[in-house]
Amino acid sequence: MSDSQNSVMPRVLILSTTTGYQLRSFGDAAERAGMALMFATDRCHQLDDPWRDDAVAIRFHEEEASLHAIVKAARTRPLDGVIALGDRPVVLAARTAQALGLRGHSPVAAAASVNKSLFKSALANRGLPVPWFFETRSDAKVSTDRRVQYPCVIKPIGLSGSRGVMRANTPAELDAAAQRLRALLSRKDVRAIRSGLEDTILIEGFISGREFAIEGVMTAGILQTFAIFDKPDPLDGPFFEETIYVTPSSLDRETQKAVVAQVASAAAALGLEHGPIHAECRVSTDAVYILEMAARPIGGLCSKVLRFDGIPGVRVASLEDVLLRHAVGENISSVARESAAAGVMMIPIPRKGILKRVHGIEQASAVPGVEEVRITAKADQLLEPLPEAGSYLGFVFARGSEPSRVVRSLKDAHAHLRFEVAAPIAVI
Question: Has this prediction a pTM greater than 0.90?
Fold first, then answer.
């Protein structure tokens, strides 16, 4: 595509930690939409465009320099929208939108979305239901703190998903969990993130109830919900490993309305204005509790589970198709998820060790309803289960007439998979 063609096309900035599947999906979606993309990824600025994608080299822990680099690049490649992929880019994406006068979430709201303590404080200040909570240093003797009640949950302030999140029912369990969390936060890969939150943890009350995920976008402060995902497997601890997302939800209509209303209230409490959101909630006997709300879309391969109708000229639209149009200000109010049930299994890691082989992929792929089995872990990669894990083994995708059938397809496919995992190599 020539520069002259690009100059008349809408252009969207995609901020991401690395290259990967979702970037390729956005590339395909941009081609369908007649848009251009500019990437800004966390890479070494001294290498001369190693992936040949003409990306802006940035460092998320060097926010001012990264913002300057993006604004400079935008002088020759003007931007019409900004999208952040993953938690780390969301603040820089918000600051970029603000600096360039584009639609986006505010930097303050984005920062609160990636800090579990700021997030809960924002909700509490608006009178929304939150469990008791307090933050403290990671080296504190938390079991002797008089504010602690049981059962409770201990978690890092800045890590995403369920990484480092543990339930404790007794002081002894809390001490053990705190020691395990300190070890995780002291690891080189965690310290390398340089979020400034590595030495702070959160302690909060455990909320019983079923857990759900919500995908949507904010447009001028108004929530549009794409999907409510059921999480069929119980998430009661001691760790909180997400395995299956399936939609449409089995919740009754009134409870679904309550969930959406509470998500909208939480977004308003944070001040999220324009862009994708991904929220997690628990429906308890007394209230709907919003556990987390990210100012970005659902992560990585999981976006494949969503398909949409209502985009002219696109027979089956992806989440990326929808988000690109939304980023440049197009009206997507008529867009709706397909009517079929759909789900994804994030394949759990069975034990710590070195992945050697995965058996049964063909049999798993042949299960009725299964669309794809994608193993993303590489041979000879070190695998770790939660709470230390930072990634999954892979993903299974399925579709069907009913959510229950989709769940059955996912579980039947997983039953065919066998993972050959060797003992980890001891480091002396």
Answer: yes
